[in-house]
Amino acid sequence: MSSLKMLACINAGLILLFGLTLALPEQEQPPQPDSTTSAGDDGPRGNCSCGGFPTATPNATQQPLLSQTPGLVVKCGDEGNNTCKNLCTALATATKAKGPEILCNRLNNCDELKLSAFYKICDGPWVYADMTAEEPLCCEDSKVKTCASTKTVNATQTVDANTPM
Hints:
Elements: H1 3-11, H2 19-23, E1 45-53, E2 66-68, E3 73-75, H3 78-94, H4 99-107, E4 110-113, E5 116-121, E6 127-132, E7 137-140, E8 143-145, H5 148-162
Antiparallel strand pairs: 1-2, 1-3, 1-5, 4-7, 5-6, 7-8
């Protein structure tokens, strides 16, 4: 694997949000309580979902390019938000090595995609998880390819490294 592809794999932390969860087959989940049910005095609960958008500021009606509901039921509120956000960012970190390949296989073709991680709980809106890919992802025919912007940056760095001071 070329160093450019390796760099893209390592630095695409957000893109990896979906790698592990997409690589695993969907398992039938037991029925989950919805946001209207409560367990004792714990208050309402609902599912945690992780999603990836092509921007850090999607509009309210925009749907994620990819999403996954890992089956975690959380309290609807600040505690649940923190738990869900931590899960989604942990999934992104844990799946760094295979994320780009899995995304390209799923998306088929994309150019200069910088995916941003989001999460949501209960029936709430998608919330930015403070995580956006450092490097863009480019795919052609379901295979990772080196993005034009990455080639330009690396060519400039090579020239600068060879320039005498």
